[in-house]
Amino acid sequence: MPVIAPMPAARPARIPSQRDGADDATAAGTTVDHLTETYRTHYRSLLGLAALLLDDTASCEDVVQEAFIRVHSARKRVRDPEKTLAYLRQTVVNLSRSALRRRILGLKLLSKPMPDMASAEEGAYDQLERDSLIRAMKGLQRRQREVLVLRYFADMTEAQVAEALGISLGSVKAYGSRGIAALRNAMGASA
Which structural domains are found in the chain, ordered by start? Predict the structure, then answer.
């Protein structure tokens, strides 16, 4: 939906020339008067162009104003005054692209929200559970403890555990089963 903004009521203040004492009307390129008339005539259409490319009115107005400022600064290079509007349109498009790029980059650089953190009570409870698990693990037979640590903490398969410990696959299964049962009993007794 095009943005409709009020036309500027007063004539914009004249910006002095880069060259001291130079008359803008006689210099080559677009004159300030021609640029001012272009501003009055095409401000709304350029604002509508920016509105098609951007999503908020303030950004559209900023882009159009910046386009006029840039074309004013480079008006000596616009040799044919009839091409002033084309330069303005292209400048609006380029500035709109830049504004969108900055937004996208800003969104990418925003810090991602932290995951929900556990409360202090939950952290303390988890620490107590870890402490009781460690105590229960220390109470297991050496082979049961070795099998459980390699199987569940080192994430090894039963065959890999059997090879690492130099025992049979059946022994790994037996030690693992008995170790888990002993842990359940020890953890249930401490709770």
Answer: 32-109 (1.10.1740), 120-190 (1.10.10.10)
